[in-house]
Amino acid sequence: MGTVGSVQSGGTMGIRPRFLVVMGVSGTGKTTIATGLATRLGWHFQEGDALHPQSNVDKMSSGQPLTDEDRKPWLELCHDWLSREVKAGHGAVLTCSALKRIYREQLRRDLPVEFIHIRVARDTLTDRMARRQGHFMPASLLPSQLSTFEEPGDDEPVIHVCGEDPPDVVLEKLLQHFRDEENQKELHAAVS
User: Fold this and answer.
1) 3-state secondary structure (DSSP) of residue 67
2) Residue 63, phi-psi category: left (phi > 0), alpha (psi -120 to 50), beta (remainder)
3) Would you state the pLDDT for residue 144?
């Protein structure tokens, strides 16, 4: 889907700029949620899959899972994009599977990055992947992603959402979460 760019909308809805990585295994709906957030908030969006080196795309297309070593340069490109967005000072949304804690640590190294983890049941993922067209990631690699995935810890900056809800419901819940956090900060500042 989309690549680097700003998606214009009705504004930020009173939500401060954030630097979000929408994460989860293949088929969770990362791109749908990420582009929805970017559109509604007027933030930049980057499809993480578009940053994969061609060797990674070729490997996945042939049904071979990526190794940590394969992912390292890709994650560095994702980090570099996030770093440029932070320096620019406006909100940004990146899609990235971010399967392991070490990958998430690499993405947020020295950056105020937050993760949105989309949870979807295995049966739903299998169904979605079987129906998906035009993506280099074959359904046969889903078991490998699921076995590689490490649930984010309580000490990681992550928001969990149910990817089985309709996208508009997920987006509204996320926006409300962000607004609630902003209101809490304002209330705390007023009391201090």
Assistant:
1) coil
2) left
3) 85
Answer with the residue of higher pLDDT: 94 or 26: 94
pLDDT bucket at 134, cuts 50 / 70 / 90: low
CB atoms within 10 A of CB 131: 9
- Using one digit for the tens of pLDDT, what is the confidence trace for 22-53? 999 988 899 999 999 999 999 999 999 999 99
SS (H, E, C) 69-113: HHHHHHHHHHHHHHHHHHHHCCCEEEECCCCCHHHHHHHHCCCCE
> What is each CA distance from 91 to 24, 28, 56, in whole angstroms?
20, 22, 28
Backbone angles phi, psi at 110, to 5 degrees: 60, 20
Q: Please give the Cα distance from 103 to 76 (Å, whole number).
A: 10
DSSP states along 156-191: S-EEEEETTS-HHHHHHHHHHHHHHHHHHHHHHHHH
Of the candidates 87, 108, 94, the residue with the CA atom closest to the CA atom of residue 155: 108
